[in-house]
Amino acid sequence: MKAVRAVLDYLMTSGVQHVFGIPAGSVNAFFDELYEIPELTPIVTKHEGAASYMAVAYAKYTATMSVCIGCSGPGGTNLLTGAANAMREHLPVLFLTGAVPVDTVGLNASQELDAEPLFKSVTKYSVTVTDSKDLLGEVVKACEIAISGVPGPVHIAMPIDIQINPIESPEIPAPRKRTPIVPDQNVIQSVARELVNKQDGYIFVGQGIRNSVDQLLELAEMLKWPIITTPQAKGYITEDHPLHAGVFGFAGHDAASSLINGSDGEALLVVGSSLGETATNNWNVNLTKGRYTIQLDYDSSVFNRKYEVDAAVLGDIDLSLTALLDELKTLNLPTNDQAFTKQEIGRADSEEYNTKNVLMRLQKYAPRDTRYTVDIGEFMAYIIHDMKVVESDTFDINVHFGAMGSGIGSAIGSKLAEPERPVVCVTGDGCFFMHGMEILTAKEHRLPILFVVMNNARLGMVYHGHSLQYKRSHPSFEQEPVNIAAMAAAMNIPSKRMETMEDLTEEAIDELMNVNGPSILEISLIDNTIPPMGDRVKFLSSFGK
Fold first, then answer.
1. Helix, strand, coil shares of the chain as percentages rounded to 5?
2. pLDDT at 545
3. pTM for the predicted model, two decimal places
4. Which among 468, 536, 540 has a CA at the least distance from the CA of 248?
5. How would you class 445 by CB atoms within 10 Å of its CB: exposed for 0-12, middle for 13-18, buried for 19 or more?
């Protein structure tokens, strides 16, 4: 058999169902073998970058490893952004790239590129295979690395000849399961005693609580401590929970900021956050100042990066929380009479046709369990600040890496991972012009996704950022207005164009969300209101002084 066939057999045995990417000469052997393997469905995209975002979202929402492939040279470099994103989100994605034949390396072969070192900085493992008999073993090794410890992406470069050379039929190894990182019980006991001795405190949660929300809520209710989320973690704690204090960091809430910047809160329990820039409102020193700080994470590298912590609990978040709960139940927690008053989030100001009110009305009419995959733009700040979390795991926000167009691919990956969950992608015209043609990928696979395009004929986040930071905005940030709904009509994709609040009706949303494939809702709107970006602009402005 061809060496690449053994790789595909292993991926199928591992439970892989989709392969995201684009066929081309250096990976044609891989795609040719798919004719014989109906269990593996290729999701052929319009751009490799979008394929990488799809693979990342698919890994996130299936809690499995996903696979993404690109050709040698430009196909591979187009995957780098998605690999970097997967690294930031700790998601296991196998990135495969083609490569020129081994004996042509250094001869300026077509699309020749040494991809191994490029991927090395944005993956857990990157290697070029130079012997066909090693190809399967390297893929198995890479997949094991991807899921082990702190999960993350890996990369294999496969020269054309290495893929097609014959090998003896190998024994396909069974896929290994990830070994959990179990917290040290002595550390858990010490932390539990510290929590019992603290009069009050706050729980600061990041995206690491993705699969541990129930345990986190039980702990918060036991301690009666308010829960503050990072922008990346918006969507996990529902708005109606009495201890939910809102978002801190980029586009966060005044209520959460008041708690962090106030003098109360004897302790801070950080769960699943690496305490990066967007999570901490530009590394606000008040976050941990004067507070006994405990950090729970499965990534030891996040401890004591920018903030010194008094206690670090290394372990899978769900295991650490469960162990901490069990330990606290054996101790006598003092009665906490601290009163926490919630502040309402996300109320529409009026019927004015602006970004905030449009998003609020969209959420009012969409199903409660809709997942919103949020692209990068001024609308993102309003989503973080104003949209309500009515059910858990309903927002996919990528503010910490911030790749324009990523929300479009994420919507497709999410829908393939959870077909029954309604998906709405909120994107902008700038992002749409980068990766909007992936709506055809959604059409080809009959994926009912509503793409809401906030069309203001400019790079809105850039426009507002420059206007606030430099008191002016370059004319090149403006774009020629384009009727995106008309573009959709040319592709035979259902669409509607909204120009007033009266156009945005429940009937219109229902119609667009109940078609056998994707649809577009274009919001033609120029909103000159300053988005609720928090201290982001103040932070950037400090570099010019």
1. 40, 15, 40
2. 45
3. 0.93
4. 536
5. middle
